[in-house]
């Protein structure tokens, strides 16, 4: 009984938060989501020579192809960010950013590093949710026309996006036996399962946003490390990737779980 009251109170708080922020939340979600692409595109500009030399030496592909790789990453990421934020050609921007993720996964050998691979897949999940949102906006002009329900592609984009987003949290689980780590793992696992299956989705996603934001600021505080140290770039990369996943979760909060979820099925029961 007490748990039901506590859950009801938490859902009321989440609903109140959504009512207050509903006009701003999608914009904040998109900004967070593209932050890692924005940061990486700017980094390509300021570290042009280092990035080109790394690709040239790693793949032995020659000066021209290495330069093309850096240029493609710079223009593709910054251009995609501009299109997403301006709400123009969002679907094309998402496909372009998907391509950048795939290209970097191969070029930087992320494919063989499970932690970074899972984080890149989580980033792809955020882009899937952005695609789903753009489909919603594209159909908003027909809001008064009766329909047979959400289109299947959008439903499954939202499902795929939710499932991929939870991969980020799997990289944060700690395997030590301390009480705090066990508690964090149990609570975190419960929340990511709720988001994945779409049960109490908005409340679970909002809780994960708060949790992930706190972890991100505490563990990835790159601004406390001098810029000349390699750890600065590693923490900065992690910080913005995590911020992008926060953006994806905020889209889940703003849009809901979609048709393929327990929350939607409950409405039919």
TrEMBL record:
Keywords: Endoplasmic reticulum, Membrane, Protein transport, Transmembrane, Transmembrane helix, Transport
Parts of the chain that traverse the membrane: 63-85, 92-111, 179-196, 203-219, 239-260
UniProt keyword annotation of Nucleotidyltransferase present: no
Listed GO biological process terms: Golgi organization; protein transport
GO CC annotation, single: endoplasmic reticulum membrane
Membrane topology: Multi-pass membrane protein
Compartments where found: Endoplasmic reticulum membrane
One Pfam short name: SURF4
Assigned protein family: Belongs to the SURF4 family.
Protein name according to UniProt: Surfeit locus protein 4
